[in-house]
Amino acid sequence: MITRRRLLVLLPAAALAWEHVLAGTPESAPNYNRAEHWWGMLMDIGKCIGCGNCVRGCSAENNVPEGYFRTWVERYHVADWRQETPQVDSPNGGKNGFPPGTAVGGKNFFVPKLCNHCADSPCTQVCPVGATFDSPDGVVLIDEKYCLGCRYCIQACPYGCRFLHPTKHTAEKCTLCYHRITKGLTTACCENCPTGARQLVDLKNPADPIHEYMKTHSVQVLKPHLATGAKVFYHDLDGSVR
Amino acid sequence: MTKFKDAEHLIRLAGAFAIGIVVFLLLRSYFVPRSFGQYGHYRGDALTEIAAKPVSYAGHQTCEVCHGDVLEVKKAGKHAGVNCEACHGALAAHAADPASVVPKLPDTAVLCAQCHEQNIAKPKSFPQVVSKEHSGGVDCKICHQPHSPLLAPGGKK
Amino acid sequence: MPVNGFMYPNEIELQWSVLIVIYPFVTGLVAGAFILASLERIFHVDAVKPTYRLALLTALSFLIVAPLPLQLHLGHPERSLEMYLTPHKSSAMAMFGFVYLWYLMVVILLEIWLDYRHEIVLLWQRSTGLKRLLYRVLTLGSSNISEGALRVDDRVGWVVTLIGIPSAFLLHGYVGFIFGSIKANPWWSTPLMPVVFLFSAMVSGIAIVMLLYMALMKIRRQPIDMRCVDTIAQYLLYTFILDFAMEMLDLIHRIYESDESFRSLDFMVHTKLYFSHIVLQIILGTMVPIAMLGFLQVVKVPERARRMAYAVAGCLTIIGIFAMRWNVVIGGQLFSKSFLGYTTYKVDLISREGVLIAAGLLILPFVILAVLMKILPPWHERETASAD
Questions:
Q1: What's the CATH number for A34-119+186-235?
Q2: The pLDDT value given to residue B153
Q3: Which ipTM was obtained for this model?
């Protein structure tokens, strides 16, 4: 129960702490040392319900322009043994959830996707000027003040996670909510996921329970044959997922 | 000496090239940002700029500072793993100034269906209903308490 | 809906437009025209001498236009200097900036200057007013056109042309590598891409010089040197056969291996790219010109008919090579990387990357060439068709 007394103590304290976080001065937030982190994400296909909360949350947190997606959800229908030709849809990236659909029988599931923050990213390899890069803590970022808008990185990404911002005219994509994870928060998509299908993982943190989970359960990455060193891992990823 | 004289124009050309290279190097030292190359082939300042962007979702740990009572109810129920802002929306502004920024209560008639409306692709074990058949259009919170939604035996909240 | 099947949500809109089709087309013409010029200088194919200077000026005209489609396409053209100031060494695009600069400065401009220097000095002495100033600047202040100096020019020019051949290969091979090195896109990703680009560049460059020579001689009411044109047509045929062989090798390999992407790409070629790929590029743009040129090698045909045939074959070739660039660039973006769907490309008329701008960029090199020909005439009026 919130008592008036409690509130009088808590409000100013909370507000003060938040001032620092909102002002974006990470020095005041718990000390963040880039060398101590190596970020990734774990998706549990068996838990995703396709509610689209992650897409809406990302959009609100990062001012994602309408019609473009830093993250999105796909729905798969696999009729039988043929893995190469599933039926897939992603109405508005899953932002407004999914309509009931006409699929009958077979395997049906949702697959959330985002930038895989590859350890050997093909997108940073091709940037002509160094506007997109791999941060020391494993996040692939874009310097919007330096990007020319040549779109070579968008062509080089095998996962379709990049787009050109329609008004800034620079490349854009998921930043793994770098502005949040460096302050001890989780990403907007993980915060909003109601089932825990999306979980941030710090692969350098020995105590990270998600990292432990990955070591003891079967996980896959998208397009492993391209050897991108993808750091978004999927548990229970069906072979039909493109 | 005649050899030199015959190649004079080439020496002038070489000179023009040399001037061009010097101009290029001067441009380089002037235009390349100071922090470029600090951590790798990119502008080092970009890391701090990106990390300094404003936050919209406060995160459930912050909500729990003030709303511990709700947490107690939620912890024991089926929505234990659902974070506050997943339903209540982005509330960092409210956390920063709780008195003036008053969040609007979500509309349960619309909100609940986003997760719980039946869909063939949702995991079979996930609680889902065809809302028309389940409640005939009645607002979910008439029967279900959102923070602890499972009905007790006998249909009580 | 512009989408058939499924595409990743961010893939629906094309990233590289018709301007990025024009860019490899134009750089290809540069490389091809230069290779033709080098045939005379290095390999002593005297028959093509009348087109030597024309080929160099053509290469320069297209080289000047080449960066323009790129600048018009960039989201922030004002930042394009960054490619020279902080080039990312692992990026083929960044390294190409320097290949382009090298080719412009050290190969084309230098070779043209050395070959024309004699006339530039004479024109300086004979002109008045603004023209005199222009020629004076071009002499770099030196008026030495003695025997010795001209011998030096010739020797150095020979070395520049020699270096120029691998440089031309690098110039357009690199463009092929910019596409060919993208493992994310199976339509582009093949080691044959730089090779196919290079050979098709040579074909288009040789064809355009041949067409320009015939057209210009007609405009100037001068007789066309048939020995010259016959020889160019021969080299065009040889290069074409090599080009076609490379393209067929790529195609047969894809069909045989039939990997993950094949079904999707095959469907795309037979539907969305049917006209541009099968009809324009393969049939009209390659097989018909090869057949015509091949026929003319074995059957004696009178001069006038031969000229007509060369003109037709040349035009079809140019169209076919443009179609090839279109099929690579646009085709590579029409299919989804999930191999489950396709999108459509609509070119605007008036926008920054629209049809009008594209047409303008294709016409501009000829305007530049006309200006260059006025400043640096490739032929003297008194020269007969069979030159010294």
A1: 3.30.70.20
A2: 63
A3: 0.92
Q: Give, as one character, the DSSP assignment of residue C126.
A: H
Contact C151 B8 (CB under 8 A): no
- Mean pLDDT across chain C, nearest whole number? 93
Whether A122-172 and A34-119+186-235 are alike in CATH topology: the answer is: yes
Nearest by CB: A143 against B46, B52, B99: B46
Per-residue pLDDT of A40-94, as tens digits, reads 999 999 999 999 999 999 999 999 999 999 999 999 999 999 888 999 999 999 9
> Side by side, which strands form the sheet with A107-114?
A87-89, A71-78, A107-114
Residue of C nearest to B15 (CA): C140
A98 touches chain C (CB under 8 A): no
Please state the pTM of the whole predicted model: 0.92
For residue C105, give the chain B residue with the closest CA. Answer: B17
A-contacting residues in C 232-291 (Cβ below 8 Å): 260, 263
Cβ–Cβ gap C105/B12 under 8 Å:
no
Q: What is the Cβ-side half-sphere exposure of residue A215, based on CA atoms within 13 angstroms?
A: 9
Q: Give chain A positions within 8 Å (CB) of B83.
A: 191-192, 194
End-to-end CA distance of chain B: 107
Q: Which residues lie below 8 Å from residue C74, measured CB to CB, with a gap of 6+?
A: A148, A149, A150, C80
**Domain boundaries of chain A, sorted by first residue:** 34-119+186-235, 122-172
CATH for A122-172 is: 3.30.70.20
Do the bridges between strand A71-78 and strand A87-89 make them parallel or antiparallel, or are there none, so unpaired? antiparallel
Which pair of structure tokens corresponds to residue B36?
Answer: 């470029």
Tell if the CB–CB gap between C183 and A86 is shorter than 8 Å.
no
DSSP A85-147: --EEE-GGGGTT-----S--SSEEEEEEEE----TT-HHHHH-SSSSEEE-TTS-EEE-TTT-
Q: Indicate yes or no: CB of B9 within 8 angstroms of CB of C110.
A: no
Query: Pick from B9, B28, B41: which is nearest to C117 by CB?
Result: B9
- Tens digit of pLDDT for each residue in B125-136? 999 999 999 999
- When CB atoms are compared, the residue of C16, C87, C337 closest to A160 is C337
Contact indicator for A122, A158 with CB cutoff of 8 Å = yes
Question: What letter does residue B140 receive in the DSSP assignment?
Answer: G
Rounded-to-integer distance, Cα B127 and Cα C204, Å: 65
DSSP state of A64: P
Please spell the DSSP secondary structure of C249-274, one letter per residue. HHHHHHHHH--TTHHHHHHHHHTTTI
Q: What is the DSSP string of C91-115?
A: -HHHHHHHHHHHIIIIIIIHHHHHH
